[in-house]
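Onboarding guide, step 5: your first structure request.
Type a short instruction followed by the sequence, for example:

Predict the 3D structure of this protein.
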Amino acid sequence: MKKIYASQVEVGMRLSCDIYNDKGVLLWAAGAEIKTEQQANKLVKDGFRSDLQEWVPSNTGSKVSESLDVLPETVKVKKVYIYDTVFDALTEIQLPLNYIFDVFKADAFHKDKRNLTQQIDSVVDVIMDVCEKHPDESLATINMFVAQGKYVVLHAIAKSVLSGLICQILDMTEEQKKIAISAALTANSSIVKLMENLCKQKGPMTVDQTTEFEGHPFNSLTLLTRAGVRDEEWLDIVLMHHEYLDSSGFPKGMEADDIPITARVVALADIYVTMIMPKQIMQQAIDPPSAFKRLYKQYGKRLDASIIADIIQRFGIIPPGTFVKLKDQKIGIVIGNSEDQSSPIVTKVGEDVTKFFTEFDLTGQYKIVAILHPPSKMPKRLFKLWRIYAEAKEQDEG
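The system replies with structure tokens like these:
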């Protein structure tokens, strides 16, 4: 986050990026017009902009005397995001997302509802951007960053990213993508405390915890409604994201024909992310290829098998972000699928998965002999592999 300075601010300017305070609370959304000296002073005193967005304010020339309590008028602007890696982008949204979840956890909407739906929209916009521009790297990042933050936040981000990627594969509209990602991000809003407790708990869920968990789709819908969410499709997805095609889901045990495609997408994403990122310390994380295989073989009737097949077709049976052992006993990371979708593209990263990687071998396709679990501590430079590979490929083609 970067501080806003007085030299950058004047009355009449329209903001080109979202403005937060130091705790990740959205103060003004991109497109807001600063109309008074009071608002300009508050912007300088409390304002920070995300590292992901450029500061390119436009001056409207208007100076209107208004109370600071009145929110500045906001217009739709196209946000431009700048980041070196998808990991950087997803790390940046963790602070505002922490604030969103703290509000959910406190159930304090009557006191602290500060632009909550706009705050959610700002996080969703970043997720939509990474999914659209860097699909392979986005899937790889959620497969690799399991130990890089709070579980409840990482789970929500990963589920939202995968939902966005699936929506792209299914060629959904921008509006459908945004609604599905918003629902995935907020589907567990009523069980933030429960998820935090389960991360520390060694035994299985108690009867009371199970009851709370099974009631969370309806309870999350209620919380979101109180928070100002009025989009019926968003709320429907939250209510249905644990409904399955064979009627075995909850809270209503709905029939397949009654479950919309966007709810099926979020249900699938939720199960996949929970497999690679289990919520209890006693549970074993599953590597991405095994999670893909389990989705297809064990969940094909409960979920939408055609969607699962589409995901595997797009990303391969060994998806990006998978650690592998190669025939020469070196360690590699899958960074994508070949153009004909027939084999994974692998980058060599060293000989020992527990050591810091200092050299990358970008020669491409190798013989994979085993799937490895990712290291518990992930060097940040590994998340640069996709940019390095793209630059090397560009040079070869040039």
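Each response can be followed by summary notes, for example: The chain has 15 helices and eleven strands.
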